[in-house]
Amino acid sequence: MVTTQTPAIDKAMAVFAFLAENGRASFTQIQKATGLPKSTSSSLLASLLAHGLVSLEEGRYALGLRWYELGNKVEESLDIKRAAMEPLTQLRDRTQLTCHLGVLEGSSAIYVLKLESPTAIVIRSWVGRRLSLHSSGLGKALLAWLPEAKLNAILPDIDFVRRTDTTIVGVEAFREELAATRQRGWAFDNAEDNDGVYCVAAPLINAAGEVTAAISVSGVSSQVNRANLDDIAAAVVATAGRIAADYRH
Q: Cα dist. 220→123, 184, 185, 241 in Å?
């Protein structure tokens, strides 16, 4: 459980995270999973019920409909998602690859839009999924153009876990990768996050020169390879520029 200077929120978030991962659960299951005392769990769940953040049916708790309302409000605030829809759809149709739009949140990236490839090849991902910054093309694109001070603040919080044989796991090696990314103008995930899955990504940069989001295309080796990598990258970079320009207006 994440610990901050506001214990009440930490405890509530532990409950939300458990229910989000496991669906419906009994009081005992929640109490044991979170490690909270029974009295604390009881009063906390009662408060969350009152606010509609959890529901209770036949002795089992679940996330409440209040989250649906709040989630819709968040989605409405993501104007960049609306700006990206048409260009990203055209990119998907042109490349036949799975397309994503993602944003930086803390020490991870999060998908806010996904367009499935029209082919039979399925890339396992979903809107709301968090992904590692060091092993994903989207993560590299979000970091590579950050000011040095902001990048230095984020790097210590990244857990450089090796996910595949090609994952970059050292800070200095990762800095070199980000420098190479800036130089070429796009990021590449060389099957570093998932075996056999390759990704090309580019940042969306606003008028102030700040990275607001990034887009990516993902596919297997038969879809993304040396023969077509430059063409795919050019299409991704052009689409990112178009979305960024539309979003500014």
A: 9, 22, 22, 25
